[in-house]
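Researcher: Structure for this, please.
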Amino acid sequence: MSDNKTNVENEEVTIKTAKGLVGEPFKAKDGKEYCEVKIPNKDENDKTPWASFVVRKANIHEDKFGKGMWFKLPKDGTTSISKPVLKGKDENGKNVYENSRERVTNTELKGMVEYYKEKEREIPETALENAAADKSNNKSFKDRVKEAKEQIGKDKAPKKTKEKSKNMER
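Model: Predicted structure, token format:
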């Protein structure tokens, strides 16, 4: 059989993105449906328009939680990215943008789209204080769970039971 392909030929890059960054499908000149995928600016203070690229609609899939999208591209392939660049201002004072195109490898593209994974996450101070308090109490995890269950039991209202009386049937 000729189905024996090597891993080199099948290597793909899986790119995950938020659902809101994938645009509505459109038909291209070739009759196939595509979707535009936006790439947010890495710098939050950068207010320039976001870069974008196009992927076949058939290749884009929703994740199992319904909040994200993912698609696969060949690892050794390239993708054309379009980024609006400020050209100047028109007579009304509005900014005029011109699209600049750039080809990047699909592994670079994955890094650009998924840059948010590299950002440091901030831990709220209350979470740190709670963790420090738990350690200072020298209580085991089992004891803390037991206390939490007891507290939940106290918070619940008692169940009302119906009393059946023989006199009610008469």
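Researcher: Any notable elements?
Model: The longest strand covers residues 78-89. The CA atoms of residues 64 and 70 lie 10 Å apart.
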